[in-house]
Amino acid sequence: MTPQEKVAAIAGKKGAGSIAALTCYDYPMARLLDEAGIDVLLVGDSLGMVVLGFPDTTHVTLPHILHHLEAVVRAEPKALVIADLPINTYATPEQALETARTLFAAGADAVKLEGGIRQAEKVRAITAAGIPVCGHLGMLPQRVLEEGGYRKKGKTPEQTREILAGATALIEAGVFAIVLESLTPCSAEKITAAIPVPTIGIGCGETTCDGEIAVVTDLLGSYPWFVPPFAKPEANLSQNTLQAASAYISRVRSAKEHGL
Ligand code: KIV
């Protein structure tokens, strides 16, 4: 399928079925998640935290995203592959387009960037070049330092109106979907009902959006040092890893002790 066909399939799910999306940062995970039937794989800048060990996403660079995107693309997933534009790579429409072109050339089907009205010109520059764009509104991890932490959004009608104005500007600029992060369920529901493109929620409560996205390590329980309150692990890979490594260490040491 072409990127445009994959995007059309996701856009067509507005109000008709739920979009299941996960972050993905490497080849084996892309193969497994694709085999499971995931709709969207996001090479998100969360990789800075859960793969590279940075304290937040503000340390992520374009070479970081490219390195992981290329690994995901080698799996030739059927799922739509979205790549994040990292912080400081989309300061102007020209720079945003150049970054998006680099990611698209590396095999991303679409790109994602954070922010509303002030990003509309950048989104327009990218979509005009034929590269699909996903928006990202609500809590914006790339602004965590300015905001002094991860704060819930959409707590007041004014905040919801502001987010909706951002969504409208992004839609006019051509986004095919919008990630909503850490909105109150009520705010997420209002925005989802008000806009014509699918919303993909994280930390907005279940069934408030047209789909859900989770950070894959939260799903797998493989990054135990920071687990957001809304995470719903379906596995405990950190525990399994500790057990497997301990069993291996014991096996190697006891073989040595017994001269095997
Ligand atoms: O980078 C990421 O993982 C994201 C999700 C939180 C949507 O942008």
What are the defining features of this structure?
260 residues; alpha/beta; eight-stranded parallel barrel; 8 strands; binds 3-methyl-2-oxobutanoic acid
Summary, kept brief:
This protein is an alpha/beta fold and 260 residues long. It has a single domain, classed as Alpha-Beta Barrel (TIM Barrel). 44% of the residues lie in helices and 14% in strands.
How does this structure look, described?
The mean pLDDT is 96. The chain starts with a helix and ends with a helix. The protein has an eight-stranded parallel barrel, surrounded by seven helices. Helix content is 44%, strand content 14%. With 260 residues, the protein is an alpha/beta fold.
| Secondary-structure element series | HEHEHHEHEHEHHEHEEHH
The rounded distance between the terminal residues' Cα atoms is 54 Å
CATH class: Alpha Beta
C-alpha Rg, in Å? 19 Å
Annotated CATH topology? TIM Barrel
Unreliable segments of 5+ consecutive residues? none
**Count of all domains:** 1
Q: If strands are numbered along the chain, what order do they take across the biggest sheet?
A: 1-2-3-4-5-6-7-8
Q: Hey, roughly how much beta strand do the residues contain? A: 5-15%
Strand elements, count: 8
**Overall pLDDT:** 96
Bound molecules: 3-methyl-2-oxobutanoic acid
| DSSP helical segment count | 11
How is the main sheet built?
A: 8 strands, parallel, barrel
CATH superfamily: Phosphoenolpyruvate-binding domains
Large-scale geometry = globular
Structural class: alpha/beta
Secondary structure: helix percent: 40-55%
Per CATH, the architecture is Alpha-Beta Barrel
